[in-house]
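Hey, resending since the last one bounced:
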Amino acid sequence: MFSHSDKKKAPNKNNAITKDHALGCIPVRNPQITEQENDDDELCLTYEVRIKPWFQGIIHKIAKKNDDIIERKLQLDALGSTVWHMIDGKREVRDIINDFQATHKLNHRESEISVTTFLKELGKRGLIAMREG
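The structure tokens again:
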């Protein structure tokens, strides 16, 4: 589910996903992510990344490591932490947007842009995957 090669075909003939279809998808957390909460209710997510082969030689010379996996951390602010907690594998993106809007008293467009941009970034890092709702 969290591999980049598992991408599903989009529902229309242009292989472009519609906005309505995207908002109906359900984000699912990568179970290999560990999270640590600090005193300000902010989260630090820890995840592993496979180093690209061309970069392994550089890492080996600098860090004296032969491992092809490194640990990365992503510090989430209060807004990002709120969205992360809403990702429960049951809520659709549109539900997360609506809940985020109500929690932070934003207009709908601001919430939609903030949440979808954040979810795209989490997806690029392999921290979440999307499944059809």
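Residues 54 and 68 are 11 Å apart (CA to CA).

Sorry for the duplicate.
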